[in-house]
Design goal:
Blueprint (H helix, E strand, L loop, with lengths): L2 H12 L3 E5 L6 H17 L4 E4 L25 E5 L17 E6 L10 E4 L6 H11 L8 H14 L10 H11 L5 H9 L3 H12 L2 E2 L4 E6 L1 H7 L21 E7 L5 E7 L5 H5 L4 E3 L2 E6 L2 H20 L1
Parallel strand pairs: 1-2, 1-3, 3-4, 4-5, 7-8
Antiparallel strand pairs: 6-7, 8-9, 9-11, 10-11
Helix pairs in contact: 2-3, 2-4, 3-4, 4-5, 4-6
Length: 319
């Protein structure tokens, strides 16, 4: 983030007495890390302001942060900031539009712009990295706290797969190093980020046993409601399953199809080298070139998505 942009965002923050920070539905550590990390920085920097973090609390991520409940009236003459959310329909708590102005801060492709002030950096590993960068640009005017550092570090670690993913840069590692200087228990945090329930561990075995892999490395696995109920797992607990196919040397790109109670499939798409976000865009989704999400409203559409993954890899072998 350049100094001019950081200053523009800070000027908006200074102009408001009430600031309400949102993030996307079904949050991951980066969504919560960037949202509440920013909130903690602003609370420490401007104790006279009212700073709120809103959205649905996710039980298995309560060790990171919990949300606040506020009345609609609080939004009057407020500044709303949305972190880590590519498109407006995915914002958790639909009241985001009730504020006077809205700032979008994100690292996903800006295919569906919204907001009065927008900052998007697709080269950043995570939105938490962007928030850390925002602080560092204005360190003489802002206050970093240990809790903010813990949250931002969790967001960076989560979205980089512990620094394994291609978006991890030298800058990412510098940011993480800076945050580690604060006195939070990083060992505990890393354990919390990685540990899974016994029910999910058993579902891991199911995924490996039922993974389809074609001759070009296109893989997929379907998790029906019946399977989720059999293992005592819900959709919010399946995030740990998403990277698993990528650990297999033969797998190059993959999809995890998780059936929702309403009957449609939530689709998590991943790839090691070939972009798959255009597939996601064709199916009510989007995201990063190598990590995207989509929706399939029938089993037939889910099968179409898998076929498109197979086609991407098949065509790449012809190049």
């Amino acid at each position: 983030m350049d100094l001019q942009t950081a200053q523009a965002i800070l000027n908006k923050i200074k102009a408001y007495d009430t600031i309400i920070i949102h993030r996307h539905m079904r949050p991951d550590p980066d969504a919560l890390g960037s949202q509440v990390g920013l909130a903690e920085i602003l609370r420490a920097s401007f104790p006279e302001k009212q700073i709120y973090q809103v959205g649905k609390t996710v039980d298995h991520l309560e060790y990171l942060a919990t949300m606040q409940e506020i009345a609609d009236e609080v939004y009057q003459d407020s500044l709303v900031i949305v972190t880590d959310t590519a498109n407006a329909p995915r914002i958790s708590d639909e009241r985001y539009h009730l504020g006077k102005e809205l700032i979008k801060i994100d690292h996903h492709p800006n295919d569906e712009p919204y907001g009065d002030l927008v900052y998007v950096d697709t080269t950043a590993s995570s939105c938490s990295e962007i928030i850390c960068d925002f602080y560092q640009q204005l360190a003489d005017e802002l206050t970093m706290t240990t809790e903010a550092a813990r949250l931002l570090y969790a967001g960076i670690v989560g979205d980089t797969g512990r620094f394994l993913y291609p978006a991890t840069t030298a800058k990412t590692l510098r940011m993480a190093s800076f945050l580690r200087e604060f006195d939070f228990d990083a060992t505990l945090l890393n354990r919390q980020l990685s540990q899974i329930s016994l029910a999910v561990s058993k579902l891991v075995g199911y995924v490996y046993q039922n993974l389809k892999i074609d001759e070009n490395g296109a893989a997929c696995c379907y998790l029906s409601q019946a399977i989720l109920q059999q293992y005592g797992v819900d959709d919010s607990m399946t995030a740990h399953l998403v990277p698993l196919p990528g650990e297999i040397d033969q797998v190059q790109a993959w999809a995890l199809f998780v059936e929702q109670p309403e009957g449609y499939y939530r689709v998590r798409l991943r790839s090691k080298t070939k972009p798959i976000n255009e597939i996601a865009k064709r199916h009510y989704g989007g995201g990063h070139p190598l990590a995207s999400g989509a929706n399939a409203y029938s089993l037939e559409e889910a099968q179409e998505i898998y076929q498109e993954i197979k086609d991407v890899l098949k065509n790449s072998h012809k190049e």
